[in-house]
Design a protein that fits this description.
Layout: E1 2-6, E2 9-17, H1 20-29, E3 37-44, E4 62-69, H2 77-91, E5 97-99, E6 103-106, E7 109-119, E8 122-129, H3 153-169, H4 172-182, E9 189-192, E10 195-202, E11 208-212, E12 215-219, E13 224-225
The protein binds biotin (BTN).
Length: 226
Amino acid sequence: MGDTELGAYKLISFDKISSTQDYAHDLIAQKKATDKTVITAQAQSAGRGRYRRTWVSHHGNLYASFIYKTVERDPRLSYAVAVAIAETLISFGLKPQIKWPNDVLIDGKKISGVLIEYAQNFVIVGIGINIETCPTVKEYQTTKVKKYADVSIEEVLSVLMKKLDKWRKADFYDVRERWMELAICINKPVKYQGKMAELIGINEDGALVLRFDTRYVLTYGDEISI
Ligand code: BTN
């Protein structure tokens, strides 16, 4: 384990840990968490994804949990995070797209995932980015940064921290506009709760807007499939 200051972030890094996300929860529970602490690991033995999925976490990829102080839950945060990841990849010449709400894909294959969890007065933003390895996952295909650019985990993390700072503070009008530019499936058919709908976009509160014929539905939580 190592502790360093990087920019305004306090960086706690591990070679291997069960999950950076779980370590972040422990820090908060022990009242040792501070705003802008980032926990990284080179590998995780129990990496967690959304929907209680396992996040396969071999050496060679980026695994990081960012702790931020917060006063309330904010559904808009996940869009800012997705844009920050996409912009990080764009800075290395990649052409990412975002799948609602915050999966980042290249050529239709997942390269990054985000797990946002709240604890006390903190939010933990867990980010996994495939850099050197493409984990085999039943539900979707995966790809990695090294297929497109020769960059290290450290370089990606350094840019990511700056982009997170920028997009977390940005006006949601700008986040939404950028998210909509990068998102796949806007005005396209998607499957939602087993039914087909048209994905219209996100509204000013961060809700996903779907259209079923003449009926519009707002949702924050469910997964859509494309
Ligand atoms: C997803 O299902 O798409 C979200 C994946 C989130 C994975 C990251 S890796 C760093 C942090 N630690 C974890 O155990 N999960 C998140």
